Amino acid sequence: MAVYRRGYHRYQGRIMGRWARFLVLPRFSWKKLFRQRLVVLLMVVSVIWPLLCAGFIYLTNHADLLKGLPREFQSFIEVNGKFFLVFMNTQAFFAIFLSALIGPGLIAPDLANNALQLYFSRPLTRPEYALSRLAVLFGVLSLITWVPGLLLFGMQVGMAGSWWFRANWTLSLGIVAGFAIWVLLVSMVALASSAYVRWKIIAGALVMGFFFILSGVATMINGVFRVTWGHALNPAWAANAVWRTLLSVEPIEGPGAAACALVLAGIILLLALVLERKLRPVEVIK
Amino acid sequence: MTSPVVELENLRVKLGRREILRGISSRLGVSGVGKAIGLLGPNGAGKSTLILTLLGFHKPLGGQARVLGFDCRSQMREVRSRVGYMPETDSFIANMTAVTFLHLMAGLSGLPGEAALEKAHEVLFHVGLGEARYRELRTYSFGMKQMAKLAQAIVHGPELVILDEPTNGLDPSARQRMLRLVREMKEEQGMNVLLCSHLLRDVEQVCDEVVIMKDGMIVHECNLEEERRSNKSFVELEVTGDDRNLQGALPAIGADGVTEGGGRWRIVLPPKVDIQVIWDLMAQQNLLVRKLNHRRDTLEEIFLKAMGHIAHTPGEGLLPGNGNCAAQNHKDSKDLRGTA
Questions:
Q1: Domain B228-327: CATH architecture, name and number where available
Q2: Could you report the per-residue pLDDT of A67-124, keeping only the tens digit for each?
Q3: pLDDT digits (tens, 9 = 90+) for B36-52
Q4: Residue A152 falls inside a structural domain
């Protein structure tokens, strides 16, 4: 029978499990996101560098193609920790741009339109809501970070053989862990901005500003106090320091990986606190 | 044994430094029988706070609140999966068509994808938004948004629907439609309804039970259904002359009444007694009737009485059916004659 003739009847059928319900919100968000041309365009641009990296891997594994090239260049394009560090640095910037584009649209409109009380009057808790929003960003950013990273790693293994895997298997863990930290940080910044500012454009600017301003603050501290620990306040620098350790690349001058990891954890914690404060179904005016 | 729809035990809620709900206790409705409970009270009485506490949005300072037998704090998930909530404020999800919005809401309530989409269409036709279901919610008029809010509250077929001021800002026809839908929900679908409103007529039209709140306390509970069945009628009378013997003469016609001074009387007539007997009695007593207002007891009277704005209803506690109402705040129901 046609729906419009049927009339309303209470639903009394099967109810989905908790995890299936949790995925409803990300599913709707992904569907909406991939309808936006700008998002799709930025995603396409973001996979250009991984494609170029795939080309490098192909080249390094085909010695006959490199015969005419100088020896120094041959060693330069060797696939090792340094190679993946360059790959990660580039993709990290695309992740910032993408999160600044996507993140503000996740929470700000819900707050602006009082939608949180509709969500939270259903079997969805505040942490679940925040996690489901995080899952949206994590899912999209994964497509341009650790997923292509692992594909490149797999491609290298496939071309170089098992000896390369035995010698460098820790790189795969480094790629996944390093990107996981970065994606988590970038997503939290985007979500906190989106929750703090109810206007999408300003929230987007805040995401970009967070990274650039902190970078400026770090440089200023180092310059004024003639120290190097200020670098730890620059999230990009701190993440790079952690990645270097994870990928077994020589560290740069400044605070160590453990200190940087602690600072990053602290930043993520502060951002989680912002979300905890802002994601409430009703505002209580004291 | 069926559990009450809402059960409150010395519930206290504090927001900031102010205690909004001050130890309220009550058992409202019976689950699964499709009854509507009206939550009445002036602004700031604590109605919305009570609703938000039942939904788990506010943490109680003390006491307990149970909805359909589930504790609002420790069994919040169970409560929320059985409840539909229509908030008072404008609440929707931006850049979404009505059907997508309802599909999402049904999904979050646990309906599988296909069933959720089917229910979304079904409910939108039910509330009269069938033709506009592919329009974005932000393009809706206020009345349409109210209907969309109602639709999202019932899309998953909850056992209890909590409606916070559902007719606010609606034109008369939309208001009637909203009330008809609420009546259908309880009568045809067997849903329990908790209706929070300051519009007495809405509550009177829809509800079977009424709870009146004031200053964070329940000051009155009333079973409207039984009140209606008792079919009492009331006479407001203003007479000139010596009315000292009138009090003694009223029981002879089966009536009871109280004087408010200055020849003003409030008289309750038993069922099936015609108003003509009042005219006859006034003639017997040589009293000149200056004003006579004959009507049935209204919720307005019950409300004003609970608020302490009028004295008690005449005949209260003497006629059958009066036991249906219970004033909890005795301080407020003291004789405040002359303040009406």
A1: 2-Layer Sandwich (3.30)
A2: 777 777 666 668 899 999 999 999 999 999 999 999 999 999 999 889 999 999 999 9
A3: 999 998 888 899 999 99
A4: no
A112–B112 CB contact, under 8 Å: no
Say which of B87, B104, B110 has its CB closest to residue A117.
B87
**Terminal CA-CA length for chain A:** 53
Longest dimension (CA), chain A: 78
Contact B258, B266 (CB under 8 A): yes
Q: Which residues contact A58 (CB under 8 A, 6 or more apart)?
A: A155, A159
CB contacts, 8 Å: A128 with chain B: none
In angstroms, what is the C-alpha Rg of chain B? Answer: 23
Interchain contact, B93 vs A21, CB within 8 Å: no
Nearest-neighbour CA in chain B from A19: distance (Å): 10
Q: What is the largest CA-CA distance in chain B?
A: 77
Angstrom distances, CA of residue B2 to CA of A10, B6, B64, B68, B185: 20, 12, 19, 9, 20
B258 Cβ contact list (under 8 Å, min separation 6): B265, B266, B311, B312, B314
pLDDT, mean of residues A37-48: 96
**Domain residue spans of chain B:** 6-224, 228-327
3-state DSSP assignment of residue B236 = strand
Model confidence over B221-262: pLDDT tens digits? 888 777 666 656 778 889 998 888 888 888 888 888 888 888
Percent of chain A at pLDDT exceeding 90:
78
Within a domain: residue A156?
A: no
| Interchain CB distance below 8 Å, B118 and A115 | no
Distance of alpha carbon B143 from alpha carbon B140, whole angstroms: 8
Least confident window among A36-50, A124-138, B240-254: B240-254
Instruction: Share the mean pLDDT of chain B.
Output: 84
The model's pTM is 0.83
Q: Which helix (H) or strand (E) holds B38?
A: strand B36-40
Residue type for position B326: A
Show the beta-strand stretches assigned E in B110-232.
Answer: 160-164, 192-196, 209-214, 217-223
pLDDT at B1: 56
Chain A residues touching residue B115 (CB < 8 angstroms)? 11, 13-14
Range picked from A266-270, B58-62, B189-193 for highest mean pLDDT: A266-270
Q: Domain limits at A126?
A: 23-44+80-142+168-278
Structure tokens belonging to residue B105: 């809401």
User: For B199-287, where are the alpha helices, taking DSSP H only?
Assistant: 200-206, 224-230, 246-249, 276-284
Q: Does domain B6-224 have CATH number 3.40.50.1450?
A: no
pLDDT at A60: 86
- Total number of domains in chain A: 1
Predicted-complex ipTM score:
0.88
Domain membership of residue A232 (yes or no) is: yes
Mutate to test the interface with B, among A27, A118, A199 (most CBs of B within 10 A): A118
Tell me whether B125 touches chain A (CB under 8 Å): yes
